[in-house]
Amino acid sequence: MIEFRNVTKRYGSNIILQDLSFTIKTGEFVVLIGPSGCGKTTTLRTINRLIEPKTGTVFIDGKDVTKQNAVELRRQIGYVIQQIGLFPNMTVSQNISVVPKLLGYSKQECDTIVRDLLALVDMPYEENAQKYPSELSGGQQQRIGVLRALAASPPIVLMDEPFGALDPVTRDSLQEEVKRIQKKLKKTIVFVTHDMDEALRLADTIIFMDKGKILQMASPEEMLQHPASAGIKSFMGKHMDNDVPAAPLLAEDFMKKKVYKVYKSTKTLESIEMMSKRDINSLVVIDDDETYLGTVSIEDIKARGKAGRSIAELINTDIMTVGRKDDAKEALDKLLSSSSNYVVVLNDKRTVAGIITRTSTAKAMGEALWGDLSA
Ligand SMILES: Nc1ncnc2c1ncn2[C@@H]1O[C@H](COP(=O)(O)OP(=O)(O)OP(=O)(O)O)[C@@H](O)[C@H]1O
Ligand SMILES: [Mg+2]
Fold first, then answer.
1. How far is the CA of 179 from the centre of ligand 2 (A)?
2. With 179 labelled, which of 94, 161, 267, 287 sits at a CA distance of 20 to 30 A?
3. How far, CA to CA in Å, does 352 sit from each of 225, 261, 276?
């Protein structure tokens, strides 16, 4: 059992978690959902003490986590994040064995664990154990990330948007696998997502968060039947059996309007400076008449750019575009299926209206749930 009792966290004057109190039962699959910045990751990391709250206490099985050695605690709590960061110089087998090894398991015990776990996700030991991460697909790497978190059979596993970067098909199959593994091994899982479909599919209990507070904590069924607010209701609409029609969402509803643009005549150096100042790795390139041409990335400038020259010859046209009145679903599908971090939204005259990123998507979903978040 995990219990939050009056947990508050601030950074400076920003209150990130506001007096959070809730309990997660042993063996429960809990999904935290809410707009970007609402404190999901902070909540998760408070459990394994990567973050210490200012006031309040987290208890695991009745024990105050701060009374335990943080490193020991973390070895008993699996942790999976997006871009799990498998160790590239270790084989699959070595990656999975990291924690068991730290805990002093013998080589033979580690080997048994690796065999058993690989069997769980249908990746035969003989074929996979000695591979390096670079020899695996993104979905396979993420599977190994999940297995690594399970290796020392921790009773609790924390997962922070573990499948966010995967294509929809791989994501589906991993969701099923995780649910199956959780049931089979009876783990307590706390899982963060932006995706309501994922939440409804996986959760025994969903926790809706906004601005460091819980708006609703309920089973998926209960949330569908008794959403705590009109906003939640309209969002859940598409999942309900009755005839509440979901408002058609357009690409423009999900886009971020502030886009860093450069004219094609901009010099390479100036473009690099702009990107480093904003901490971004690409810019949208426009023609003299403001119409969209493509994007330019910091990697391309570094690899092929010449000092003193413009970025015109480095323009990349692979990034997908959508019209602002296009169906949002199409835009999101493009975002999820492409390897780039955003899609560009165009006005009728092919000028740039905005970009859709994962964060802008989450914000828009949050607003669909709870109304204007800036108000
Ligand atoms: N080290 C830090 N210093 C200052 N502010 C921070 C720090 N870490 C997080 N924050 C702020 O705390 C808030 C909550 O962050 P958190 O990462 O928990 O959000 P989140 O719900 O996980 O968001 P996302 O969905 O984008 O991952 C954000 O406003 C963030 O900017
Ligand atoms: Mg987060």
1. 21
2. 94
3. 40, 9, 22
Cα–Cα distance list, 328 to 33, 161, 255 (Å): 20, 21, 10
What stretches of 66-177 adopt beta strand conformation (E)?
A: 77-81, 156-160
Q: Is 114 helix (H, G, I), strand (E, B) or coil?
A: helix
Q: Is 32 in the pocket of ligand 1 (CB under 6 A)?
A: no
* Closest C-alpha to ligand 1, atom 30: 37
Q: What pLDDT score was predicted for residue 236?
A: 61
Nearest CA to ligand 1 atom 29: 37
Strand order in the sheet with 342-346: 321-323, 342-346, 352-357
Instruction: Write down the pLDDT at residue 293.
Output: 96
Q: What are phi and psi of 316, to 5 degrees?
A: -105, 130
Residue type, 32: L
Q: Which one is the CATH code of 251-370: 3.40.50.920, 3.10.580.10, 3.10.20.740, 3.40.50.150?
A: 3.10.580.10
**If pLDDT is split at 50, 70 and 90, which confidence band does 244 have?**
very low
Give, using CA atoms, the residue closest to atom 26 of ligand 1.
36
pLDDT above 50: residue 182:
yes
Q: In the prediction, which pLDDT does 242 show?
A: 45
**Mean pLDDT on 10-20:** 92
Q: Residue 24 pairs with which residues in a beta bridge?
A: 2
For domain 2-239, the CATH architecture is 3-Layer(aba) Sandwich (3.40)
The predicted pLDDT at position 367 comes to 52
Residue 246 confidence (pLDDT): 43
Q: Confidence class of residue 374 from pLDDT cuts 50, 70 and 90?
A: very low
Q: Is residue 339 classed as helix, strand or coil in its secondary structure?
A: coil
**Joined tokens for residue 42:** 């902070």
- For the chain, what are the domain ranges? 2-239, 251-370
Nearest 5°: the CA angle 362, 368, 241 is 110
